[in-house]
Write a structure and sequence with these properties.
Strand content: 15-25%
Oligomer: single chain
Number of helices: 8
Order of helices and strands: EHEHEEHHEHEHEEHH
Helix content: 25-40%
Distance between the termini: 5 Å
Strand order of the largest sheet: 1-2-3-4-5-6-7-8
Length: 206
């Protein structure tokens, strides 16, 4: 199973240093989710990451930066999807000038998952686990097992996933998982150590 790491929404002092270390240790997809960043701030964030890793970065805002940098792709927010003209224009430009880049979105219930347009490369469903660490009843695993093979998009699970509960979703058909809190906010372990353990665990589930 593939590991996608979401950044924290806010930037902390040592974040770039840690991000680079994670990329050096095999992180394949970094989801840069910084909703309050200006375009200038996002450019500065990307510029601090060595260019050789730019093809592992997926941005969640300021999508026209996909034409400035050799990024892995973009994650389209619901807010931007509602800007229909800008959204269609962006898709057109990516199709002709950045062909092959990942275009992803998020879904928060089964009905939305069934209606995902085929042009989305990846779909993240969340939360797969509740705050109480229970499986989310909005995503029955048996239903997902039947639906996922029928979809054109690759499906990733996010929300509340950690080393203790990931085994519960290993046979559903997910392409991988998205992690954030279990990497960044575990006081007992440093992010790099937790990433290495998570990467090793997910490799055994592939």
């Amino acid at each position: 199973m593939q590991l996608n790491l979401f950044t924290s929404n806010d930037k902390f002092r040592s974040e770039i240093y840690i991000v680079i270390k994670l990329l050096e240790n095999g992180l394949q997809s970094l989801q840069i989710k910084k909703p309050d960043f200006t375009k200038k701030q996002l450019r500065s964030y990307i510029d601090q990451i060595p260019e050789k890793f730019h093809n592992k970065l997926i941005i969640h805002s300021h999508y026209n930066l996909i034409f400035k940098y050799n990024l892995k792709g973009i994650h389209i927010s619901k807010h931007f999807r509602n800007k229909k003209i800008k959204f269609k224009t962006l898709l057109f430009l990516i199709k002709y000038f950045r062909k092959g880049k990942i275009i992803s979105c998020s879904c928060h219930n089964i009905d939305k998952l069934l209606d995902v347009p085929k042009f989305y490369t990846n779909v993240f469903i969340s939360p797969i686990f509740t705050k109480e660490n229970n499986l989310n009843p909005l995503f029955p695993l048996k239903t997902l097992e039947n639906i996922i093979p029928q979809l054109e998009s690759k499906v990733f699970a996010t929300g509340g996933i950690n080393l203790k509960n990931v085994d519960l979703i290993k046979n559903v058909g997910f392409e991988g998982v998205g992690l954030m809190g279990s990497i960044w906010f575990d006081d007992a372990k440093q992010p790099l150590l937790h990433f290495k353990e998570s990467k090793k665990k997910l490799t055994t589930l592939s």
